[in-house]
Design brief:
Layout: E1 2-6, H1 14-26, E2 31-35, E3 56-61, E4 64-68, H2 70-73, E5 74-79, E6 84-89, H3 91-103, E7 109-113, H4 123-131, E8 135-139, E9 153-157, H5 165-176, E10 180-184, H6 194-201, E11 205-207, E12 211-213, E13 220-221, E14 224-228, E15 231-232, H7 239-243, E16 250-251, E17 256-258, E18 265-270, E19 276-278, E20 294-295, E21 299-307, E22 310-315, H8 323-328, H9 332-345, E23 356-357, H10 367-403
Parallel strand pairs: 1-2, 7-8, 7-9, 9-10, 10-22
Antiparallel strand pairs: 1-3, 3-4, 5-6, 6-23, 11-17, 12-19, 13-14, 14-16, 15-18, 18-21, 19-20, 21-22
Length: about 400
């Protein structure tokens, strides 16, 4: 394995240099070679047609290679909430991913269903899929009799319209035969996705009408009862979030009622006991509970064992991996999704390393906690200091009077 470092003399990035030295020192199979573009102006042309800035890298092993631009090492993303840019360092992740790509003969394949107004994959989600060397392909079941055999997993991402009964049957046979399916499907403006939802009904999980709203201020964020902070249940998929004390931020979610008693269904995310589903859905006019609204609690994400090693992971929000909400969760939403994909596609020897933020991340807290902090900061602490000052002043005056 050779890592070519494309850099002019005296223009080396100290952080990249330190990282490359660690790779070389930790493995006798990795060799770092500097290539000065002033001396070798056409060297990079055999690997990429892109413009190659200083401190870019090329990872090569045998006949396989991958180009890593400097802009892929220092990532800059626009932060819509603060009207600024966030920077993160992804050198370790980019190099590890390139090494994995160069040494792997076959890469896992993720097939993405289309034909029902599905949403476009969010930028951070699609980039992470590519970084983890998962090949993607779009396909339709309207002109297929079955899911392609080479698919390691099928993804249904934010459909606006329902699948047909025939497509439901194909997907049902696929998972019962050992296939892997990941679904992100929240409430639809076009109505209930009955055929898609019937995939879960086969395992005693029913999707409730409407949008889940929280009345418990510990379980929603930003004064918006539909932006949920669900409880995270213990599982292989969620354990990394629990260990690191992260919140998932789930907007505009559909409630799932689980009546399974066989143990085939594992709840991953749940709403509180006081949650309810507003049947008005996108036409909601009040967050208060009204007649006809459906009582919680609800599951908001489940993992289903379909037998024969088949598995479904279902997130009841189409916007879970949206760039904005992922930013609000400090990347926890994306990590949750990638953990789910890893679980479905099987453990691989390659190690995925997420980028390290060089900017400030959001601290996501519940509305009740935010209100408590406001009371303490604005009222509690000032009054406490004032009271302490008065006590000290009175005590000093008493001592002065006693001495007189």
């Amino acid at each position: 394995m050779t890592i070519y470092w494309i850099v002019q003399a005296d223009k080396e990035d100290d952080v990249i240099e330190n990282l490359l030295e660690k790779y070389e020192s930790l493995s006798e199979h990795i060799k770092i070679v500097k290539k000065n573009p002033d001396v070798y102006p056409t060297f990079a042309d055999q690997y990429t047609s892109e413009e190659v800035p200083n401190n870019s890298l090329i990872v090569e092993c045998g006949e396989r290679s991958r180009y890593i631009s400097y802009s892929d090492i220092y990532l800059t993303e626009e932060n819509m909430s603060s009207y600024s840019y966030d920077t993160s360092f992804d050198g370790e992740g980019a190099i590890t991913s390139a090494i994995d790509y160069a040494v792997s003969e076959e890469l896992p394949k993720l097939y993405i269903l289309e034909g029902h107004g599905e949403a476009e994959l969010s930028l951070v989600f699609s980039e992470q899929i590519e970084r983890e060397n998962i090949e993607t392909a779009a396909f339709s079941l309207l002109n297929e009799d079955s899911v392609p055999e080479e698919a390691d997993c099928v993804l249904i991402y934010g459909p606006a319209n329902d699948i047909s009964a025939e497509e439901k049957d194909i997907l049902s046979e696929y998972v019962k035969g050992g296939g892997k399916l990941m679904v992100l499907a929240g409430p639809s403006k076009e109505g209930q996705l009955e055929n898609l939802g019937s995939l879960l009904e086969d395992y005693n999980v029913e999707a409730a009408d409407g949008v889940v709203v929280e009345s418990d201020r510990e379980h929603y964020a930003f004064q918006a009862p539909y932006i949920l902070l669900p409880d995270i249940c213990e599982s292989e998929i969620t354990r990394p979030l629990i260990d690191e004390n992260y919140y998932a931020v789930m907007p505009i979610a559909q409630g799932l009622k689980v009546s399974d008693t066989s143990g085939a269904v594992t709840e991953l995310l749940t709403a509180s006991e006081t949650s309810y589903s507003k049947k008005a859905g996108y036409d909601i006019s009040t967050y208060e509970k009204e007649e006809g609204d459906i009582d919680g609690p609800f599951a908001l994400a489940v993992s289903v064992d379909c037998g024969n090693e088949g598995q479904i992971v279902w997130f009841a929000s189409s916007n879970l991996f949206d760039d904005t909400y992922n930013s609000y969760s400090s990347g926890a939403n994306l990590n949750l999704g990638m953990n789910a994909l890893s679980s479905l596609m099987g453990e691989r020897e390659a190690v995925s390393v997420r980028s390290k933020s060089l900017s400030y991340n959001y601290l996501t807290i519940s509305e009740s906690t935010a209100s408590l902090l406001k009371v303490l900061m604005i009222g509690g602490f000032p009054l406490a200091f004032l009271g302490t000052g008065i006590c000290i002043m009175i005590s000093r005056r008493r001592r002065q009077n006693e001495q007189v």
